[in-house]
Each structure stands twice: as structure tokens, then as C-alpha cells.
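Run log // design_07
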């Protein structure tokens, strides 16, 4: 019965031969080489062009030629009456499916999977034969993919080959996606070293030194390791600044994240356990895309802020380096709680805060600078706006960052930036006709508002333009936003923008702004009504995604924005909005 039910999704097949289970190791990771792989490297009867996968199909348990193929060789000799040596015949013979290799690998989205594919499909006599010096120019998270491109470009550059391989693996159509974006990223890796400003180099050096101190004082097997305590106290006497928290501040696009990410890469090469926490799941997803092997989560998720503080006192002890982005959005109570967790970890981890206090603040209006412990921070500043490539936009950002503009300056900032172009001034809230005209002028724009109510109104207006009636009609190419944190690893997080690709029986297939294909399925939550009764609510965690709030895009770079400041007097709103783009004509 189970086989019949499963046949609805996957076709049944017969396997009359032998099945070999093989947990594929990852090259150059700290794990023992399996015995069968060692026999492959030491094998004398195989040619140098035989891959490990082919060897697994042809070799027996002892690494010699399988008895099945020995018998087949004798039969072929009797039929053809031609004498061919067994080893020569075995290297020419194509495996016919008598042996099925059940290779256990990581998910295809992981770079480790590429390393395992390399080990299975590229011949070698020793593992270091697979290494090529050009791969050292790639980031750690892309090196195995780069090696696959260097060794087998005809396969990895051909989408049809990748599609055929995933089809043979019985992958669903949802997971068979075009590989061009990540491959293009590898191909366009700069040949020279990253050019850093002196201020960025100083930040990297300072953070790296504190990571080294944390690694030296890492506790051993015993919690009261006297040697570790001795190292810590000795270093404390010679360099008392090591216990200070590093804070990297600077305007939007000044290279704060670039400098900190370089320090993170240095720390991982030293063997440090690194964690990155962000205020929003959307920002955490962008970090996870760039650093898939690190611990990346929201601040609330990583440090369990929804638990009682006494239950989380040891949560920082496992880390050697902790990066917390957008410190300006953290309320005072969250900042002080994080410092207490750092105190509970004996102030050993290298704690780094990154952000800009000239941008939007947290929900309750307080900031980390209002904390009495802010005076203990080691503050490093960056001042040059590297992302801004337009002198006119740079002048506006510097003005908005340093002072409140006068009426004359505000008119100069807003000149030639009315949306839509022919809309009369002081015309009130945007209408459906206004939204339609804006979309005709700038089809790829993102509408930004202060409040959720205004964002909802713009989404409704746009939907009326596209679908006439306001029922949540789903169609291909529609812009949506995810409203629940369901799968942070894959980018299924609140606020993530996406485009509808197609409808499926079990949900809506979308491609996110991070390039991930997701199946958005209905979720069920229990809600407590005012009378105390409990009701279950099943819904798709989606809403229209043409408009969003400024809080959701803080820290992101957008191609074009259309801004509606629906609430007056919000500090830094215009500065945050304009700093999302690179040129003055992009808003």
C-alpha cells in the first residue's frame, strides 16, 4: 500500500542488482578518509581516468574487481574468442546498472555538495590532486563550486547537464532551477585583492586581534581550565582594551559591512566559531546567502530574547566572535541584555556592533547610546560614503545626516522628483491612477512608506490597477512579500520580497529577491479571541509586495524607490530612504 501511495509522486523501479550505501566525505575537511576511498587511491588495476563513482560500481568489498564482472569477462571471452586482459577489459567496460550507488550528500545549495560531487566524478590519486591554486581567490563558501567549474566546465556551464542530473535524482521541478546566478558570481570574482581604505584596514586589524585573544582563552574540556584562565589574565594585564566591545559606526554605504565581513573571513580561517545577528529576518537572509556556513539569525532568535534571561546566560559562551548588525535599531533594553550575556561569557568572545545612529531607531524609541554602558564601548568611525556614486545625491545625504534642511534646501532636494511626474502638488494621498502612472514610468520601483497602513493602501491601489477587483488574486509576475518566519535557512522570512512564478496544488511557487525558489504553503495558527475561546486560522503567509515600510529595507540596496512620507516628523526617514539607492535619478 505504501508503494502504491508513493507511486503517485515517484515512479516505481526494480533494482535486481546490488545497492552500495556510501556517505561521501567532503574534501579537506577534518574527517577520516573512508576505507573504500583509500582503496580507490591505492588501486593498481584501474586507469587514472576512472572516477570514484565508477570504481564503486566496479569494485568489490576488498577493492578488487567485483566477481560479477569477472564472470562477465569470462563469458565475453567465450563468445568472442578474443583474449583481453581482465584489467584492460574492466577499464573499458561501461557499468550497466548492476550496482546502484546510494551516495549520501549535503543539500545541493551547499558548497559542500560541490566538494562531494568533485570527489565522486573527478579522478584523482590523492585528494590534493583536486586542488587548483585559482580556487584560493574565491571566498570559502564558493571554493568547491569554483573547483567544479575549473575541472568540469563543460558540465557545470551547461544547464541541460545539471537539469538531467537532478532529474535522474528524482528531484521535483521546484528544485530544478537555473544555475546561472551563482555561476556568474564565481566567474566574475575579481582577480586582485579587495581594495580597502586605511580606516577599514584598522577596523579589520582591531577585530582580528580580539578574535585571536578569544581563541587563546578558549576553554578546554574542563570549565575551570587553569591554563586558559592564566592566558586570559596574562593578556588582560598587557592589553586591557581587549575586553571592550568593538562598535563600527558610519553612514549608509561607507563600507562597514565590508570591513566586518573581511574580519569574519579571517576569523573563520583561524577556526573561530562566528555568529551574526540582525534585527530583521530579511537582513539575516542576505547575510546567510553570502555566508552559508556561519550561524546567522535574528537577534531575538539567536539570543532567545523571548525566554527568561536566566535561561540564556550561557548562550554566548560557544562563540568566539559575534557580529550584531544595525545597532541603531536595537532598543536600550536589548542592548543591555546582550552585554549581560557577554558578561556571563566572561567577556571572552569578540563582540562587534555595526550600524548608524543617524538612521531609524527601534520600536520603543530608545537607542543603545542611552545606556550607561555605552561609554565603555570601543568606537571606530567610517565617514566616506562609498556606495553613493552621485555627487548630487551625496550632497543631499550629507545634509540630511547632519542637520534638518530648511524650506529652500528641502525644495532643492525634492526638485524633479515628483511621482508621478505630472501630479499636482498638495494633491493628497495617492490614488490608483497615480500608482498606475508611476508604474508606467518606473516599472521596477519599490514603494516605501512610514507606516504599515500606508503600505497596505498602496498595495491595494496597485492591485486594483493590475487585477481590477481587490480580492487576493494570484497571477504570474505578481510582487508579494512573505509575512511569517517559517524557514530562515532558505529565506522564508517576514518581509522578504518575491515574485510569483506559478501556482501549484499545495501552494504558490515564488522566487525571492535573494534568488531562492520557495513553495509558499498554507500555515495554521491558533488565536485567542477576546472571550477566551481559541480559533484556528489557516492562511497563506503572503501579502502584496509592491510597497513596504522603511524599517524593512534599512540596510538594503534598491534599484529604484518611490517614497510616500505618510507621517510627518519621523526622524531620519528621508535620509534612510535616499541612502537605499546609488544615484539621484533612482528615486
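design_07 sequence
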Amino acid at each position: 500500500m505504501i508503494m502504491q501511495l508513493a507511486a503517485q509522486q515517484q515512479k516505481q523501479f526494480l533494482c535486481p542488482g546490488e545497492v552500495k550505501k556510501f556517505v561521501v566525505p567532503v574534501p579537506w575537511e577534518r574527517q577520516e578518509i573512508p576505507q573504500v576511498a583509500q582503496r580507490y587511491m591505492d588501486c593498481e588495476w584501474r586507469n587514472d581516468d576512472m572516477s570514484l563513482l565508477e570504481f564503486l560500481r566496479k569494485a568489490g568489498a576488498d577493492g578488487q574487481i567485483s566477481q560479477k564482472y569477472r564472470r562477465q569477462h569470462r563469458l565475453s571471452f567465450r563468445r568472442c574468442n578474443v583474449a583481453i586482459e581482465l584489467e584492460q577489459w574492466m577499464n573499458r567496460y561501461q557499468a550497466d546498472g548492476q550496482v546502484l550507488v546510494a551516495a549520501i550528500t549535503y543539500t545541493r545549495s551547499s558548497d559542500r555538495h560541490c566538494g562531494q560531487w568533485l570527489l565522486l566524478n573527478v579522478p584523482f590519486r590523492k585528494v590534493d590532486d583536486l586542488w587548483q591554486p585559482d580556487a584560493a581567490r574565491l571566498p570559502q563558501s564558493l571554493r568547491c563550486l569554483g573547483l567544479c567549474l575549473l575541472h568540469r566546465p563543460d558540465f557545470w556551464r551547461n544547464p541541460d547537464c545539471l537539469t538531467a542530473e537532478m532529474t535522474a535524482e528524482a528531484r521535483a521541478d521546484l528544485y530544478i532551477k537555473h544555475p546561472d546566478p551563482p555561476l556568474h558570481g564565481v566567474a566574475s570574482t575579481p582577480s586582485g585583492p579587495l581594495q580597502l581604505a586605511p580606516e577599514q584596514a584598522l577596523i579589520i586589524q582591531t577585530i582580528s586581534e580580539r578574535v585571536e585573544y578569544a581563541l587563546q582563552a578558549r576553554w578546554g574540556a574542563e570549565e575551570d581550565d587553569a591554563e586558559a584562565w592564566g592566558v586570559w589574565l596574562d593578556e588582560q594585564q598587557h592589553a586591557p582594551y581587549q575586553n571592550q566591545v568593538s562598535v563600527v559606526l558610519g553612514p549608509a554605504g561607507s563600507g562597514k559591512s565590508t570591513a566586518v565581513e573581511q574580519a569574519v573571513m579571517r576569523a573563520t580561517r583561524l577556526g573561530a566559531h562566528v555568529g551574526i545577528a540582525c534585527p530583521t529576518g530579511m537582513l539575516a537572509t542576505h547575510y546567510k546567502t553570502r555566508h552559508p556556513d556561519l550561524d546567522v539569525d535574528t537577534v531575538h532568535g539567536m539570543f532567545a530574547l523571548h525566554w527568561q534571561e536566566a535561561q540564556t546566560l550561557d548562550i554566548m559562551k560557544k562563540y568566539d566572535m559575534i557580529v550584531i548588525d544595525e545597532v541603531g535599531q536595537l532598543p536600550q533594553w536589548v542592548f543591555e541584555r546582550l552585554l549581560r550575556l557577554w558578561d556571563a561569557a566572561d567577556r571572552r568572545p569578540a563582540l562587534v556592533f555595526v550600524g548608524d545612529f543617524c538612521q531609524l531607531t527601534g520600536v520603543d524609541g530608545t537607542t543603545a547610546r542611552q545606556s550607561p554602558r555605552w561609554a565603555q564601548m570601543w568606537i571606530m568611525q567610517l565617514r566616506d560614503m562609498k556606495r553613493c556614486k552621485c555627487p548630487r545625491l551625496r550632497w543631499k545625504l550629507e545634509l540630511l545626516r547632519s542637520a534638518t534642511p530648511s524650506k529652500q534646501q528641502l525644495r532643492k532636494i525634492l526638485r524633479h522628483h515628483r511621482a508621478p511626474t505630472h501630479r499636482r502638488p498638495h494633491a493628497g494621498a495617492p490614488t490608483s491612477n497615480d500608482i498606475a502612472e508611476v508604474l508606467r514610468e518606473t516599472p521596477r520601483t519599490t514603494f516605501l512608506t512610514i507606516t504599515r497602513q500606508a503600505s497596505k493602501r498602496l498595495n491595494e491601489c496597485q492591485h486594483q490597477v493590475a487585477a481590477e477587483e481587490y480580492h487576493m488574486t494570484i497571477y504570474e509576475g505578481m510582487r508579494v512579500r512573505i509575512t511569517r518566519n517559517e524557514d530562515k535557512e532558505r529565506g522564508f522570512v517576514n518581509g522578504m520580497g518575491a515574485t510569483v512564478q506559478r501556482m501549484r496544488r499545495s501552494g504558490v511557487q515564488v522566487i525571492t529577491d535573494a534568488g531562492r525558489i520557495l513553495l509558499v504553503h498554507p500555515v495554521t495558527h491558533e488565536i485567542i479571541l477576546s472571550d477566551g475561546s481559541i480559533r484556528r486560522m489557516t492562511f497563506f503567509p503572503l501579502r502584496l509586495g509592491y510597497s513596504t515600510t522603511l524599517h524593512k529595507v534599512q540596510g538594503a540596496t534598491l534599484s529604484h524607490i518611490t517614497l510616500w512620507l505618510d507621517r510627518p516628523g519621523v526622524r531620519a526617514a528621508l535620509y534612510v530612504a535616499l541612502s537605499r539607492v546609488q544615484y539621484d535619478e533612482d528615486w
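The first helix runs from residue 2 to 6.
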